[in-house]
Amino acid sequence: MAHEQVIEQLKGYKRIIGRIKYLEKLPVGGGIRLSTISHDDNLQELHRQLRGMPSYLYLSKREQELETTAHAYLTRYPAGVKAQLREVQGLYSADEEDERRLREVERKILKVLETRTGQSEGFHGVLERLSEIQDLEQEKEQVDNALEALGEYKPEYADLLRLRYIEGKAVEQVADDLAISRVTFFRWKTRSLEEYAKVAGCDGDDLERGPAV
């Protein structure tokens, strides 16, 4: 990761936050906004409660059959309805009856999501926007984690990067905020970009020492 790439990632931080906020406010039907269904906290709590009970207490005989079939093919059990749908959609069986059951499981999960979004038309568009939110949140978390880790041993470097590239302050403003000279700013800038890249899992020796400020 070159200096320019680190700078581009940091400068894009606020754009990521803005995009997440925009997507979460999008209506998806039935008076529901995307933010309402972008998290599965309530469902996950229900899952935790149900896991402590035998399934025959809350599943019909047919649902128990479907559960047994799904468990026979699933290799992982993600939390959240959206993740579960993606997992089941990737399952296929050469056994005709098992294949019918798997597709029935898929339809039931899809029905849950359609009910929550208040629409069946354009449902996949909703999933795409949810996936985009998840990707953006991962990008944001990567920057947050790298800056936090850098701040543990070089807080002045983390502050410089935040002020200059995330807050977008001018060189002179950053130097004033950090009580350093302009010369020190440029020395710290080079080192902070290198340290950020190392913390983020990149080799600092591969960085290009360009003129970007």
Verbal overview:
Helix content is 70%, strand content 2%. It is mostly helical. Strand 1 and strand 2 form a beta hairpin. The chain is elongated, with a radius of gyration of 24 Å.
Question: How would you describe this structure in keywords?
Answer:
mainly alpha, 2 domains, 70% helix, 213 residues
Q: Summarize this, please?
A:
This protein is 70% helix and 2% strand. By secondary structure, it is mainly alpha-helical. The relative contact order is 0.14.
Strand content: under 5%
Please tally the β strands and state the result.
2
What is the domain total for the residues? 2
Oligomer: single chain
Structural class: mainly alpha
Which H/E pattern describes the elements? HHEEHHHHHHHHH
Weakly predicted, low-confidence segments: 40-47, 204-211
- Mean pLDDT comes to 77
Rg: 24 Å
- Spatial arrangement of strands, main beta sheet: 1-2
Largest β-sheet summary: 2 strands, antiparallel
What is the CA-CA span between the terminal residues?
Answer: 16 Å
Please bin the fraction of helical residues: 55-70%
Number of helices: 11
Principal-axes geometry comes out as: elongated
Write the layout of secondary structure elements.
Blueprint lengths: L2 H9 L1 H12 L2 E3 L2 E2 H4 L3 H11 L9 H13 L7 H9 L6 H22 L5 H31 L1 H12 L4 H8 L3 H18 L14
Helix pairs in contact: 1-9, 2-8, 5-7, 6-7, 8-9, 8-11, 9-10, 9-11
